From TrEMBL:
Protein name in UniProt: Bifunctional NAD(P)H-hydrate repair enzyme
EC number: 4.2.1.136, 5.1.99.6
Residues that bind K(+): N63, D119, S158
The keyword Isomerase belongs to this UniProt entry's keyword annotation: yes
Homology family: Belongs to the NnrD/CARKD family.
Binding residue positions for (6S)-NADPHX: 62-66, 123-129, 155, 256, 309, 359, 423
Residue stretches making up the YjeF C-terminal domain: 221-479
Superkingdom of origin: Bacteria
Domain YjeF N-terminal, chain residue ranges per copy: 11-210
Swiss-Prot/TrEMBL cofactor(s): K(+); Mg(2+)
Classification via PANTHER family: ATP-DEPENDENT (S)-NAD(P)H-HYDRATE DEHYDRATASE, ATP-DEPENDENT (S)-NAD(P)H-HYDRATE DEHYDRATASE FAMILY MEMBER
Length: 486
């Protein structure tokens, strides 16, 4: 089942719905003991709890309360705990009392030699960058990678916007982020800033309001992707699984054609057609592709991929127009997007499923504005305006449909940031659309496999798009085999 990511408002609504649990303090007790358990796990993994040294940077709200109660639990376990209170008069009274009773020490600055630091500055109530008093405390620490203390953020790394994931400057870089009930948007949108994210069950509804305001962000679980992936059934033949047509590249620049077509061939067992002047090059790489030089000779398809390396001249525009005038699902990428930016009427009135797959530069051409700090709103806004599905590329891929639902995917690494990787993504997503998946599911499932393929191919060394393409099948296999479906 897809994992729902919540805005700060949706979290507060879910907390309020628990009634007595919220007002009686049970939620905070559960949250803080969850933080303490994660910290204990970290200390045990690196030598045990007793006699270790943990610090906390404590803000004026309930986030600081969580951290103080967690430090109290740790102090009872024999951990030497020090708290820096950023606003001593407004520190959470119950948390501060528990901390002091447990033998915790209050200091002006974090001492040196700490094993771990808890960031309890702000959580979902935070606005803007880390203020200087807090920033000074974190600036004193050596980075965790260089032997400094691990940083465990309570709920969110402070300085990161809960809803947009904007990483303000300065902001805390967390090793681990411990959150409660359900992940917040920022845990996906600012995933690299959060480190490992642990979600503690505190008894709130983890799905949030299904009819909440757009954009509503979810992430497919690996099992979802495995379950969606088309595999041939007993009655299937080469046509019944969906035929995808790829219009890409040229005789002079065949690379995009080969990569996009090869990705479509690798992603599903349905048939792949190619249309364009790179037909000979494509067939010499993939003999199973049925290639034609013109659309008239192409034959029937269930979905089109159009754009990578096709050029932006009048001929390309005519082909794009013809494809978009059909009632078939169409994925538009690269040069196709440049043409759409100049001719929005090509997609604006389209009723058939349409997926646009811009990177940030292409997005700016399409939307007439930069993506900006709020990528979620940027993708959802364009999807709503043009009533198409928009897949905004990046380390975190966002696939926004016109209704305001957004599927996100964290590639987990940036190895796929290489020339031609986008052509591979188009081929995978187009093949999935031809099999009958919606643009949104096709885009999100393709992004998951694409990111996984990049990791498998790279194994810590840089890759080009050919290596990425070669790992598409192993990535599909790994995801299917790891799930109950495989
Ligand atoms: N409501 C509940 O029952 C629960 C809340 N929980 C915790 O409570 C947090 C939310 O608590 P609050 O609503 O009190 O809000 P926060 O504690 O997140 O932040 C609010 C406080 O931070 C200050 N502030 C805002 N931006 C700042 C900045 N950039 N730099 C420094 N200070 C800043 C505000 O003036 C205010 O005093 C959650 O993130 C979570 O950690 C958990 O205990 C779970 C249960
Ligand atoms: K925090």
């Amino acid at each position: 089942m897809p994992i729902r990511y919540l805005t700060a408002d949706a979290v507060r609504q879910a907390e309020r719905a628990t009634g007595d649990l919220l007002t009686g303090g049970a939620l905070m007790r559960r949250a803080s003991s969850g933080v303490a358990q994660v910290v204990i796990g970290e200390l045990r993994a690196t030598g045990g709890c007793y006699g270790r040294r943990v610090g906390g940077v404590i803000g004026a709200g309930d986030n600081g309360g969580d951290a103080l109660y967690a430090l109290a639990v740790l102090a009872h376990r024999g951990v030497a705990c020090t708290a820096v209170l950023l606003n001593p008069d407004r520190a959470h009274p119950g948390g501060l009392a528990a901390f002091c009773r447990a033998g915790g020490r209050i200091a002006e600055t974090l001492p040196s030699g700490l094993d771990l630091v808890i960031d309890g500055v702000v959580g979902i109530g935070g606005r803007g960058p880390l203020r200087s008093a807090a920033a000074d405390q974190f600036a004193r620490l050596e980075r965790a990678e260089s032997g400094g203390p691990a940083i465990v953020a309570v709920d969110l790394p402070s300085g990161v916007d809960a809803d947009t994931g904007e990483v303000h400057d300065p902001a805390v870089q967390a090793t681990i982020t411990v959150t409660f009930g359900a992940p917040r948007n920022a845990h996906l949108l600012a995933a690299p800033q959060c480190g490992r994210v642990e979600v503690i069950d505190i008894g709130i509804d983890r799905f949030g309001p299904s009819d909440g305001p757009a954009p509503r962000l979810s992430v497919l679980a690996d099992d979802d992707v495995a379950g969606l992936w088309p595999v041939p059934g007993p009655d299937d033949d080469k046509y019944s699984q969906g035929v995808v047509g790829v219009i890409a590249g040229s005789a002079r620049y065949p690379g995009a054609a080969i990569l996009a077509t090869g990705a479509a061939v690798s992603a599903t067992s349905g048939m792949t057609r190619y249309v364009g002047t790179a037909a000979d090059e494509v067939v010499s790489h993939y003999p199973e592709v049925v290639a034609a030089r013109t659309l008239d000779d192409a034959g029937r398809v269930q979905a089109w991929v159009v754009g990578p390396g096709m050029g932006t001249d009048d001929d390309a525009l005519a082909v794009l127009r013809t494809v978009l005038e059909t009632d078939l699902p169409v994925l538009v990428d690269a040069d196709g997007l440049t043409l759409v930016a100049a001719h929005p009427e090509l997609v604006a009135d389209r009723r058939a499923p349409t997926l646009l797959t811009p990177h940030a530069g292409e997005y700016a051409r399409l939307a007439g504005d930069d993506v900006g700090a709020d990528r979620l709103q940027a993708a959802a806004g364009l999807a709503a305006k043009w009533q198409v599905t928009v897949l905004l590329k990046g380390r975190i891929t966002l696939v926004a449909d016109p209704s305001g639902d957004v599927l996100g995917n964290d590639a987990g690494s940036s190895w796929a940031a290489t020339a031609g990787a986008g052509d591979v993504l188009s081929g995978i997503a187009g093949a999935l659309m031809a099999s009958g998946l919606t643009p949104s599911l096709a885009g999100a499932a393709a992004a998951r496999v694409h990111g996984h393929a990049a990791d498998l191919a790279a194994r810590s060394a840089p890759i080009g798009a050919s290596a990425l393409l070669g790992a598409v099948r192993p990535a599909v296999r790994a995801i299917r085999e790891a799930s109950a479906i495989g």
